[in-house]
Amino acid sequence: MPDQPEFADIFEYRIVYVNTKHGYLSKRHFLAHSQQHAFEIFTYACNRKSIEAEVVSIDCWNRWANRWEKQELIPSAPEPSIADTHSA
Questions:
Q1: Structural contact between residues 13 and 32, judged by C-beta atoms closer than 8 angstroms
Q2: Which helix (H) or strand (E) covers residue 85, if one does?
Q3: Which of 13, 37, 40 minimizes the C-alpha distance to 27?
Q4: What is the DSSP string of 19-80?
Q5: From CA 71, how far away is CA 6, in angstroms rounded?
Q6: Model pTM?
Q7: For 21-52, how does the pLDDT look when each residue is reduced to its tens digit (9 = 90+)?
Q8: Distance between CA atoms of residues 31 and 26, nearest Å
Q9: What is the DSSP-derived secondary structure letter of residue 82?
Q10: What secondary structure letter does DSSP report for 4?
Q11: Residue 58 burial by Cβ neighbours in a 10 Å radius (0-12, 13-18, 19+)
């Protein structure tokens, strides 16, 4: 990745979401350089699998404290949806 430092840290993110089509709560885990990057991967995965999702929370694993730490949701990020792939 050209915008990332050569030895950037990688963090584990957990995204909790509601599948709006079926109404159930699910979790997905991603290794990423930032919360924004994890969200981009999540959006791609939702579009690829035709999952309509509403993000409930994003957490980052703190390996030193051995716990998940809640992250603020990105206000400018659009909700993942299969409609994004069909509008272009």
A1: yes
A2: helix 83-86
A3: 13
A4: ETTTTEEEEEEEEESSHHHHHHHHHHHHHHHT--EEEEEEEEEETTTTEEEEE---TTSPPP
A5: 25
A6: 0.74
A7: 888 999 999 999 999 999 999 999 999 999 89
A8: 17
A9: T
A10: S
A11: buried
